[in-house]
Amino acid sequence: MSLRLLVTGATGQVGWQLQRTLAPLGEVIACTRAELDLSNPDAAAKVVRDLAPYIVVNAGAYTAVDKAESEPDLAHTINAVAPGRIAAEIARSGGLMIHYSTDYVFDGEKAAPYDEADTPAPLNVYGATKLAGERSIAATGCAHIILRTTWVYDIRGKNFLRTVLRLAREREELTMVADQHGAPTWARAIAEATAQITARCIQMRGVTGWSNTGTYHLTSAGQTTWAGFAQQILEEYTTLAEWPADTGEWGSPLVAKRVVPIPSAQFPTPARRPRNSVLSNAHLLSTFGLQLPDWRQQLRLALQDAVR
Ligand SMILES: NC(=O)c1ccc[n+]([C@@H]2O[C@H](COP(=O)([O-])OP(=O)(O)OC[C@H]3O[C@@H](n4cnc5c(N)ncnc54)[C@H](OP(=O)(O)O)[C@@H]3O)[C@@H](O)[C@H]2O)c1
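Above: inputs. Below: predicted complex with NAP.
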């Protein structure tokens, strides 16, 4: 009999890709916000109860980092209360919950990549709600995997890649923050790794019960700054030239000639962000044998998808 997997946040970057990568594992039911609203935890829990999935992959989240500063209650409900309620349903049914979290649970003061044993200390509301979500899931005793990732982008959705390309069609010079360090991570790579982790968990379930549960860091290899990411986007996009005459958003030429690096202090935002967002993926590698490639290689593949 086919396993049922429920994906929340079907319209999001990761949720979109999960519908494709999880397909070989069973029946994937992907819910949009209208079908499973995390701002209403009771209703969200009821949807999970009624659909009775074996595994929930919770890709839905309140991800507007700056807006969260002025909507802390809503962000907390979506990112912490609802995941806990869903986890409680899964705990009852004996299934597995896979959930995503963020580097923003850390304050960025560590001089080396963060590992899973490092103590979280979020600088902003979004990070605090995501940390609360991790804890509310764990508190239910539900079998769970929490994947912390960073700087997520794709060729659709709201993200830095598309913002840079939009600005690069309007301006000759792009000013970008150069004192925050992290690893841009392609949503598809996250979804592919999630599918492999899920497959392994399902396989082991029959042998040892749910095993290798807990928290893992899952990001591209390597690191850069927002300025470095922007520069690489411009270079890769330009290298992929030979545009078809009209391919809409992805076919138009850029006018941007340079990226000007600036310190965060010159780009004040409502939410403070960590200086160091780099996460060590060693635990993921030693447990699941998985390692995402360098961020530049992934960026090239993502752009090839869009323009070729
Ligand atoms: N984006 C990043 O840079 C980043 C970095 C680190 C970690 N993460 C984590 O990675 C996971 C996936 O993020 P993503 O980049 O794929 O996010 P995303 O592209 O912003 O998508 C978020 C998804 O959540 C849905 N959503 C928002 N409010 C909801 C609600 N009340 N009920 C149900 N669904 C709701 C959105 O639906 P609508 O389309 O209707 O708004 C959308 O489908 C999240 O847990 C996020 O916290 C993301």
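The chain has a mean pLDDT of 94.
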